[in-house]
Design a protein that fits this description.
155 residues; alpha/beta; YbaK protein; five-stranded mixed β-sheet; 8 strands; 28% strand
């Protein structure tokens, strides 16, 4: 099994664990469903969201148990106004479908900001590039491999 995200992780030599789970019909979001299916605290499962700050696309990575604060994201970027990107734009920029957007192996290199809560855990989970597939990584590896910055962007 392979995705661009998994290929990127393999090439980097970063240690990771791949977790596959069934995607079913549920009222939960993709991330919440992943946490439930994997039996993991939803604070450790992070969603990858594409937004724009002053018209430029950026990525915010926050726990699935929280929401991305657009105000905090704009401040972290050094901008004034942030808004969520249209799903079709997010898919085009990252090369992944919504619900399976990974911070690794995106088709376009975007500025990334990871909520600082990620550093509270030995490992965190992010999408491996498709729905039903998560990758567990050390937070520092997530930051280093994506050139992400940490910021308090969750609410």
């Amino acid at each position: 099994m392979s995705t661009r995200a998994i290929d990127t992780l393999r090439r980097s030599g970063v240690l990771f664990t791949l977790h596959e789970y069934q995607v079913g019909d549920t009222d939960l979001t993709y991330g919440e469903a992943a946490a439930e299916a994997l039996g993991v605290d939803s604070d450790r499962v992070f969603k990858t969201l594409v937004a724009t700050v002053d018209g430029s696309p950026v990525v915010g990575i926050v726990p699935v148990s929280a929401h991305l604060s657009l105000k905090r994201l704009a401040k972290a970027v050094g901008g004034k106004r942030a808004e969520m990107a249209d799903p079709a734009v997010a898919e085009r920029l990252t090369g992944y479908v919504v619900g399976g957007i990974s911070p690794f192996g995106q088709t376009r290199r975007l500025a990334m900001f990871v909520d600082s809560s990620a550093q509270e855990y030995e490992t965190v989970y992010v999408s491996a590039g498709r729905r039903g597939l998560q990758v567990e990584v050390i937070p520092d590896d997530l930051l280093n491999l994506t050139s992400a910055q940490t910021a308090d962007i969750a609410e």
